[in-house]
Amino acid sequence: MVRIEVADGDDVDALVELWVSLVADQRPYGAHLLAAENRARVREFLANFVATGSVLVARDDRVVGFVMFRIESGAYEQDVSRGFIDNVFVRPQRRGEGIGSDLLAAAEDVLSERGADVAALSVLAENEGAQRLYERRGYSPHRVTMERPLESDTSSRED
């Protein structure tokens, strides 16, 4: 039986390991983050999210997944309060059990309680499995980020 709970300080080590796994999983889809090289930096980042109650974990006898979220703030006034899901990860051997959906639903509930009108997230364009999960939860494209290498034999300055 998997429980969704607010992460606490005792979960930070497990969260760091899961984050490293998440980043390693994203590399085949074109992610630029380096997993192990960011371990120390992400420990501080995750500890800050945990301290604000902005990480939920899925656990049975150990942490099997997590979601990080926040209310987006920026320099511009907007006509909605937007909650942002920063990361969702479930251990590969536990995928397909509904844990990712449960984590998303719980994060959406907390964001709503904190005043968010909408929830947003980013997904790598080539990660079709994650996109299917988010689409089943009612997410649809809002903004598309595009990139290209700046040094390439095929680069073109033509419009």
Secondary structure blueprint with pairings:
Elements: E1 3-6, H1 12-26, H2 39-51, E2 55-59, E3 63-71, E4 82-90, H3 99-113, E5 118-121, H4 128-136
Parallel strand pairs: 4-5
Antiparallel strand pairs: 1-2, 2-3, 3-4
Number of strands: 5
Outline, from the CA principal axes? globular
**Straight-line distance between termini:** 55 Å
Walk across the major sheet and give the strand order: 1-2-3-4-5
Helix residue percentage = 25-40%
- Strand portion: 15-25%
Instruction: Enumerate how many helices there are, as a single number.
Output: 4
N-to-C order of helices and strands: EHHEEEHEH
- Please mark out the parts with pLDDT under 50 across 5 or more consecutive residues, or reply none: none
How much is the radius of gyration in Å? 17 Å
Mean pLDDT across every amino acid position: 93
| Biggest pleated-sheet summary | 5 strands, mixed
Structural class: alpha+beta
